[in-house]
Structures are given as C-alpha cells and as structure tokens.
Amino acid sequence: MVRIRMKRTGTRNAACFRIVVMDQRSSRDGRAIEELGYYDPVRKVEKVDLERADYWVGVGAQVTETVADIIDRARTGKVLAERVRKASPSKKAKAKAEAEARATAEAEAKAKEEAAAAPAAEEAKA
Fold first, then answer.
1. Model-wide pTM > 0.70
2. Domain count, the chain
3. What's the rounded Cα separation, in Å, for the pair 88 and 8?
4. Contact at 8 Å (CB) between 80 and 44?
5. Quick one: CA dihedral 66, 78, 14, 87, positive or negative?
6. Are residues 76 and 124 in the same domain?
7. d(C-alpha 18, C-alpha 6), whole Å
8. Judgement on whether residues 46 and 68 belong to the same structural domain of the protein
9. Whole domain around residue 97: which residue ranges?
10. Looking at the structure, do residues 114 and 52 belong to the same domain, yes or no?
C-alpha cells in the first residue's frame, strides 16, 4: 500500500517536512518513491505539486489527514501564514469566567429581590 505522507527533515527544534510518496511499511524518514513538495511550520511555508498528488491518488495512494489539509489549502490558494486560529482560553481562565458569571447572576438576583421588597416596606410604614 502506498501513502502520501510527511517525512521529517531539519534540525532539532526546527522541524521541516517533505511531502512524499512512500510504501506504508517503510520508516518515516526512509527512502521515498517520489517527493511531491514540502511544509515548513516554522516559516509557515508549504508547496505541493498538485498534478503529481492527483496522479498518485488516482493510482490508489492513501493520503494522511495532515497532507490532505495541506493539499486542500494549496488547491484553494489559502496561505498558511494568513490562517488565524481562535484563542482558546485555558481551564483556569474558563473556571474564572464561570465563577464571575455566577457571582454576577447572584448579585442581579439579590438586587431584584431588594427592589421588589422596597415598595412593600414603604407601604407597611404608611
């Protein structure tokens, strides 16, 4: 079985990947059948030969999820550097926001109770 996957290159803490066609039984950094492009997450650059990728998929090669995403971005013309990820708050920040929301809701409920009790207290005095 042939797969289109990534082969790690580069140095420690500065990884770079080649998009290659390999037999699934070969090691990650082993000998490739063909090199289709590259992906550099540090510089946020990626390039893929779409014609050759289509050929290999047509012949029956399987594509890994990450490589499929890279190929989709290359087809649509999206640039990896322009991709914006939503900020995901940490568990601590989520817990803090929930506690603040609960405290605010309790304060509002207490204020409503006091506002409702104030006219009744005035009528009792009169």
1. no
2. 2
3. 28
4. yes
5. negative
6. no
7. 5
8. yes
9. 88-126
10. no
